[in-house]
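hey m, so remember when u said the tokens were messed up on ur end? i reran from scratch. heres the input so u can diff it against urs
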Amino acid sequence: MARPQAAGSQRVLAVDPGLTRCGFAVVDMSAQRTGTFVHVQVSGSRAHEALEHRVLTVMEAADELMERFRPDVVAVERVFAQNNAPTVVGTAQATGVVIAAAARRGIPVAWHTPSEVKAAVTGDGSADKESVNRMVVRILKLDAPPRPADAADALALAVCHGWRGGVAGMNAVAATSTHSGSRPSRSTGTTGTTALTPAQQAWRRAESASRAPGARGGSPARGRRG
């Protein structure tokens, strides 16, 4: 059974795309930018398997997680061109089925580059993986970094979106080059670019209240979470 979502929180499904290993992480982010670990997994297939079955594996994992955890937003790592063409193609294919699964459900898709993730989590856009993992463990109060690395990367991406994107990131989704234009409303099936779910609306109200004069708390200081 999926862990109940805390009232006023935003549930983020983060995806570190790939065919061999595709990292998925679910994190609940409060308006005060505190994160709660919900779920993490790595799905994938062997390189010798038929391409259609490899893509299907990622698609089925994405479908199952979206149905099980009902995320408010899907955060995907935006990967730029690399020298390894097969890796780039595989990443693009995995990304395609994930964002299609989100679009079919009317879930907003947000994009973050690896350097944005590092900067959000550690304050340094060129930080190494060990530094990022240490901060993820502290932020989410984990006993140890998840393994393999794709799982840790997905968790870092979820934290990045919660701190950088939030509701503002949801409203900016329509401006991205890959997920643009109108999208189906999750409640009515009609189109629109700024419609928010009840959970997203509650998150926005809580975020606004936390920023009001005299409100306690606020955004956590990077590098000082314990």
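this time it looks ok to me. Helices lie at 51-69, 85-104, 114-122, 129-140, 149-171, 198-211. if urs says something different then somethings off w ur setup not the seq
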